[in-house]
Design a protein that fits this description.
This protein is mainly alpha-helical. It has a single domain (about 5-154), classed as Arc Repressor Mutant, subunit A, CATH 1.10.10.10. Helices cover about 70% and strands about 10% of the residues. It has seven helices and three strands, in the order H-H-H-E-H-H-E-E-H-H. The longest helix has 22 residues, at about 20-40. The N and C termini lie far apart (about 40 Å). The model has no long low-confidence stretch (mean pLDDT about 90).
């Protein structure tokens, strides 16, 4: 038995009664599955988040992306640099504010995002394998309610 599986099976029974603990365990497994899938195409979760934000919202400054995605600004500079070197984004001075860089998705970035979307879909299928389609939809709905509620609290 793998060590991780053995340790979870030995977890105190009262933890198994805590939705917060169960959510954390599921999130950890989801992150591992997704990271493994992203490795297949040489990408990381932050790459997917940035490409997704640019695809949804269009060009944005590095600072805007950092705030929206909750990525530390110094980390954002490094990740944008990786994406730029790969030809997936273009960074240029913003025409309306020369003090900031506008980050734009390139055609190669659109293609890479499509590859990442396929990996994410596979990861979701793997993570949620024991659930029916209706249960998956219900879980997504419930988690959305939780996240929206706690996001509104800030």
């Amino acid at each position: 038995m793998p060590l991780a599986q053995a340790s979870i099976e030995r977890s105190p029974s009262r933890l198994w009664q805590l939705p917060s603990w169960l959510l954390a365990q599921a999130a950890l497994r989801g992150q591992r599955i997704t990271a493994r899938r992203f490795d297949v195409v040489g990408m990381r979760r932050q790459h997917f988040a940035i490409l997704s934000a640019l695809a949804d919202g269009g060009p944005a400054s590095q600072a805007e992306l950092a705030r929206e995605l909750r990525i530390d600004r110094s980390d954002m500079v490094a990740v944008i640099g990786e994406l730029e070197r790969a030809g997936l984004v273009r960074r240029a001075r913003d025409a309306s504010d020369r003090r900031r860089n506008a980050v734009t998705l390139t055609p190669a970035g659109v293609y890479a995002l499509g590859q990442l979307d396929a990996q994410v879909e596979d990861a979701q299928r793997e993570l949620l394998a024991p659930l029916s389609a209706a249960e998956r939809a219900q879980l997504t709905w419930l988690l959305t309610r939780l996240v929206e509620h706690h996001t509104a609290e800030r």
